[in-house]
Automatic annotation (TrEMBL):
GO biological process, one term: regulation of jasmonic acid mediated signaling pathway
Known catalytic reactions: jasmonate + 2-oxoglutarate + O2 = (1R,2R)-12-hydroxyjasmonate + succinate + CO2
Protein name: Putative 2-oxoglutarate-dependent dioxygenase
Domain Fe2OG dioxygenase: 212-313
Molecular-function annotations in GO: dioxygenase activity; jasmonic acid hydrolase; L-ascorbic acid binding; metal ion binding
Listed cofactors: L-ascorbate; Fe(2+)
Pfam families: 2OG-FeII_Oxy (PF03171), DIOX_N (PF14226)
Length: 364
């Protein structure tokens, strides 16, 4: 067992999964959110008026020889979703349903391994890669009701299979194949986002570093919680990276998206990915596309597993509004900042709504 990484966290790490198994009708104070941040369970998450879904978009016309009108309709739907929601679901996206199910099931098996096996991959604040249970390093912080596993997929020099779980026995092969297919899908969607901004189709991708983009995977495990009304699986935040491709739990809803002043519980479509705009795309698009606050609620009866695949800029190039989108009427809203600098800024503080990206706006 590797204990040294844990010593770098501000307090001893407690695995939430172990708390879930030990807690019967209460949770430790460290996980109780302030009243203003607690979820509302006044209505059932299954009510149609509560589970008002984010847009669901069928990508089939993009990948087939469909008529131009069908393709234009899909482009328009994605454009509206990026501008109005910052979130949308995609179906018929080209990643096989079997691979999606296998990836999620493989990670569920990992989280049910004996704790000493998982501890071999315990992470630290310096690398963040590996098995973890907290984000920020602020001492005494209120914590989220979740464990996770984080790993790098791109660039290739950061990919280290030895830092990936070796159990279940086929897990590294599954993660490799899943990453390869999702990277392809992200590239296709980025082209659409570029075209919808009136840019060359490779413009946003090139703004991310072209062939040197980054990609990483964060697998979230939300154990059962005896007091779900007091805590969150993941606090409110916007994603710091470029674009997120989320494979949600097929059985248990949990993701909530902030829409104006309302939290909407997303009902996942079957074998859909949930796509959301990250802070870096908000910056590149000069806030035409917007990253949106979201959070995760937990469940007293069921655990939940989700896979968040982050498609990010190269870490050391300055990200700033694309020059074609800067005009006298709409000057650049953000100063240049590398993704490395921004990620460090986020990691020190932990999830804090959209305050981080908004604080970067250039003074007017």
């Amino acid at each position: 067992m590797k204990n040294s990484p844990q010593e770098e966290w501000p307090e001893p790490i407690i695995r939430v999964q172990s708390l879930s198994e030990a807690c019967v009708d209460s949770i430790p104070d460290r996980y109780i959110k302030p009243p203003t941040d607690r979820p509302s369970f006044s209505s059932s998450p299954d009510d149609d008026d509560v589970v008002s879904n984010i847009p669901i978009i069928d990508l089939h016309p993009l990948f087939s020889a469909s008529d131009p009108a069908a393709r234009a309709s899909v482009l328009a739907q994605i454009s509206d979703a990026c501008r109005d929601w910052g979130f949308f679901q995609i179906v018929n996206h080209g990643v096989s349903p079997e691979l999606m199910d296998k990836a999620r099931d493989t990670w569920r098996q990992f989280f049910h391994l004996p704790v000493e096996m998982k501890q071999q991959y315990a992470n630290s604040p310096k690398t963040y890669e590996g098995y973890g249970s907290r984000l920020g390093v602020q001492k005494g912080a209120i914590l989220d009701w979740s464990d996770y596993y984080f790993l790098h997929y791109l660039p290739l020099q950061l990919k280290d299979h030895n830092k990936w779980p070796s159990h279940p026995p086929y897990s590294r092969e599954v993660v490799e194949e899943y990453g390869r297919e999702v990277v392809k899908l992200c590239g296709r969607v980025m082209k659409v986002l570029s075209v919808n901004l009136g840019l060359e189709e490779d413009r946003l991708e090139n703004g991310f570093g072209g062939e040197e983009v980054g990609a990483c995977l964060r697998v979230n495990f939300y154990p059962k919680c005896p007091r779900p009304e007091l805590t969150l699986g993941l606090s409110s935040h916007s994603d710091p990276g470029g674009m997120t491709m989320l494979l949600p739990d097929s059985e248990v809803a949990g993701l909530q998206v902030r829409r104006l002043d309302t939290w909407i519980t997303v009902k996942p479509a079957r074998h859909a990915f949930i796509v959301n705009i990250g802070d870096q795309l908000q910056v590149l698009s000069n806030a035409i596309y917007k990253s949106v606050e979201h959070r995760v609620i937990v469940n007293s009866n069921q655990e939940r597993v989700s896979l968040a695949f982050f498609y990010n800029p190269k870490s050391n190039i300055p990200i700033e509004p694309v020059k074609e989108l800067v005009t006298p009427d709409r000057p650049a809203l953000y100063p240049p900042m590398t993704f490395d600098e921004y990620r460090l800024f986020i990691r020190l503080k932990g999830p804090q709504g959209k305050s981080q990206v908004e604080s970067l706006k250039s003074p007017r």
